[in-house]
Amino acid sequence: MKKMGYSMFARRLWLVLGLMFAAQLAQAADPYEIVDDVTNKLVSAARDFNKDGDKSAFDKTVLETLEPVVAFEYIARVVMGDYFAKASQAQRDAFAETFKKDLVGTYAKGIATYADSDIELLRDADVGDKRRVMVEQQVKYQGATHKLSYTMGKNRDGQWKLINLVLNGANLGSSFSSQFEQLASKYSGDLDKVTANWSSSSDS
């Protein structure tokens, strides 16, 4: 286990399920509906993929579905922490793009494994005029129950975006930030090397 670490299973489960809500419903008034409706959609797509094996079509669907509503650039900025201010615009853009491709790629590879999970939305509050909402799901997989808490934020355009997630009490944003710091230390602050060696599925 590394600093702020948890099992590889937990990390991979977040990469699969933590992005599962994203879709063309970005401007929906209710983030709970986004999570519930699109989880169902992508689970169905994953099950179809398990049957027909059309990987290129599935990968394309995953990217097109996640890109509009996951706040990749915002999350990447948070993950970079103090290094964001030190980075050039080109380095910021490069890491954000690498971060996005890595998460989406890992998700596309792993979602089929969890396609048969029992996923339940836990709704206990109205959204009202809130601009940040915690949406919780309970995921049952192979006899174990996992709790996911999505942080959904509404931007200036009224779009709900995923900005963080907590899995069984483990803050994934903090974990990725810790991972970035470890890599930055390993490569003596060389952000180009950090980006070149970034992998969200790694414990390093």
Walk me through this protein's architecture:
The protein has helices spanning 8-17, 31-52, 55-66, 72-80, 83-86, 89-110, 172-186, 191-196; strands at 118-122, 132-141, 144-154, 160-167, 170-171. Helices cover 49% and strands 18% of the residues. It has 204 residues and is α+β, with helices and mostly antiparallel strands. It has a five-stranded antiparallel beta sheet. A hairpin with a 5-residue loop joins strand 3 (144-154) and strand 4. The longest helix has 22 residues, at 31-52. The protein has a single domain (8-196), classed as Nuclear Transport Factor 2, Chain: A.
Question: Topology of this structure?
Answer:
Elements: H1 8-17, H2 31-52, H3 55-66, H4 72-80, H5 83-86, H6 89-110, E1 118-122, E2 132-141, E3 144-154, E4 160-167, E5 170-171, H7 172-186, H8 191-196
Antiparallel strand pairs: 1-2, 2-3, 3-4, 4-5
Helix pairs in contact: 1-6, 3-6, 4-6, 4-7
